[in-house]
Amino acid sequence: MSYPGRRLPFTVEVGKHGEPPPLYVSHLSEGRIVLIGGSRISGTYELRQQITFVDEGKRWENEDLCSKLVDLNSNGVPFQFQPREMGSPDMLMAWWQEIGKIKVSFKEIFWRSPDEWLLTTIEPPVIGTRGWAGPKPFGC
Length: 140
What we know:
Blueprint: E1 11-14, E2 24-28, E3 32-41, E4 44-52, H1 63-74, E5 79-80, H2 89-98, E6 106-113, E7 116-122
Parallel strand pairs: 5-6
Antiparallel strand pairs: 1-7, 2-3, 3-4, 6-7
């Protein structure tokens, strides 16, 4: 994870080996925020929820989506780390931090192995930190 403008080292909480992950935002799918977590049963997680949002326009400009992700964040729900998925919830949260729309940290969940996860706290960026000069257009 290489979020510009964030101070290192990040705060990290490590889940115990084999401990089920908390409920977390997995991904976005056709107007739905998909949350999963808990113990695995037959390859799927026992907890699965979906929250609908108005899926119109660019996701990084979507006020309904932003509002719902911010609400999940305020309830301590982490976001899955998805470095290759442009427009993923974690990338959107980082972008909204960069432009000042979100002024608080969020937690990102990342796996070291199928049975080992960790939570990383992503703080809002600070201009000048690690060479960050300010926000660029989303995805650049």
